[in-house]
Q: What sequence folds into this?
């Protein structure tokens, strides 16, 4: 406990800020550099940093492994359902004009927002899944062994 | 007024570049891990702060200044933390400075345990 004191305090401070920044990159992605993939990676970094410092058990209390697997699939579902909805509205697959027929640019705005949300959710899920897969293979190092 | 700000901002930027170059030279030239870590932390604290203050003065009272200040605060917290983590890992795995090789009380922790 004493050994990683500075790392623990700094990680606690930064985790919330990293998640907030991930949301900024996610939803501000069409005006400034960023988008779904980058936001997903930044969001995953918050959880991975928490897991590296506090241990796998602590981070899996926040984000259990089964939730992460479902998130990775949910993002793809959001992405493809956006396309299917525009298909049912009588437009081509992923034609964002469908969401606001009188204002095609507004429709494109909403469509890109939905698609980017799907990409972000999937990337978060896959990144955290990869971390869990690697971290749960090795025997865990306790504080006493340092 | 603007000339004063311009001169000050370029002075800060040049000083920050100087510290960054000094840190890079130190990483290559210093003899062991601990002194190299010291050089690396110079370029990431002194160089970073001076460069960001210089860029803030260039940007004036805009949103860019606020973003630069936020970046500066985060780097100010994370840079020393990263240096601390690397140094701590090296200390616990038994690396000692060259000058402290025969020093009493500087033995690696694993040697004390056994």
A:
């Amino acid at each position: 406990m004493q050994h990683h004191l500075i790392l623990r305090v700094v990680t606690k401070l930064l985790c919330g800020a990293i998640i907030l920044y991930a949301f900024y990159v996610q939803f501000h992605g069409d005006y400034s550099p960023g988008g779904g993939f980058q936001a997903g990676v930044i969001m995953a970094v918050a959880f991975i940093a928490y897991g590296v410092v506090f241990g796998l058990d602590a981070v899996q209390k926040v984000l259990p492994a089964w939730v992460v697997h479902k998130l990775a699939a949910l993002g793809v579902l959001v992405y493809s359902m956006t396309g299917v909805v525009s298909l049912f509205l009588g437009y081509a697959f992923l034609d964002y004009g469908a969401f606001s027929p009188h204002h095609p640019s507004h429709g494109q705005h909403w469509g890109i927002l939905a698609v980017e949300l799907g990409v972000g959710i999937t990337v978060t899920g896959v990144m955290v899944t990869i971390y869990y897969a690697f971290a749960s293979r090795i025997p865990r190092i306790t504080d006493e062994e340092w | 007024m603007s000339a004063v700000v311009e001169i000050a901002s370029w002075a800060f930027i040049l000083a920050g570049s100087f510290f960054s170059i000094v840190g890079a030279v130190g990483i290559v030239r210093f003899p062991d891990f601990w002194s190299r870590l010291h050089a690396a932390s110079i370029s990431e604290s002194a160089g970073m702060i001076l460069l960001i203050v210089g860029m803030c003065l260039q940007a004036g009272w805009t949103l860019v200044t606020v973003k630069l200040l936020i970046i500066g605060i985060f780097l100010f917290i994370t840079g020393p933390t990263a240096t601390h983590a690397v140094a701590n890992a090296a200390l616990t795995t038994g690396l000692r400075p060259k000058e402290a090789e025969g020093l009493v009380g500087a033995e690696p922790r694993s040697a004390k345990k056994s």
Summary: Chain B is about 80% helix and 0% strand.
